[in-house]
Amino acid sequence: MTEVKPMRADARRNYERLLAQAQRAFAEHGVDASLEDIARRAGVGIGTLYRHFPTREALLETLLRARFDGQAERARELLTHPEPLHALQSWLAGLGDATGTFRGLVELTADALSDESSRLYASCHAMREAGSHLVERAKNAGELRPDVTTHELLLLLHAASWAGGHLPGPGGTQRLLALVFEGLRVS
User: Fold this and answer.
1) Mind listing the pLDDT tens digit for each residue in 140-182?
2) Among 41, 115, 139, 179, which has the minimal tally of Cβ within 10 Å of its Cβ?
3) Measured between alpha carbons, how far is 64 from 61 in angstroms, rounded to an integer?
4) Are 165 and 103 in contact (CB under 8 A)?
5) Distance between CA atoms of 125 and 117, rounded to whole angstroms?
6) Which residues cross the membrane (predicted)?
């Protein structure tokens, strides 16, 4: 077994600056932001960026893993909420915020859900698995149509996140999800 050496202090600073600048660049320009610009903003060369993050997806995965893992944990916490449909809606709203963070992220996460070779697959799959328990709980309580699947809800969420990013002002995804939620109730 090989032992992982701790990062030197200067390497750790470069790593943290790269993450901070990547967060800003992806927020401003979407997931296709220039990696060269991210390195320049962080005050390092492109080779330093690639030593820490060999691909764009590796950089995005590092930025997003904690956010996505947090959404999986939130789904597990919401399993104890007394209103199953409200719990599901709350989780989907939080997930919509997480996937709408960067322009182009919706497509990336949708692809990662079905691509086992993706670096984001494990986090995305854990989110979907945790959310599926909320879906089943809402169905079993008679609060969600029995023919609705987790996959369908995630596709609707991705569509709302994408479209919400094209509405003026903040909260577009939440407004669109509110419209979707009203159509999910059992008549």
Assistant:
1) 999 999 999 998 998 888 888 888 777 777 777 888 888 878 7
2) 179
3) 5
4) yes
5) 12
6) none
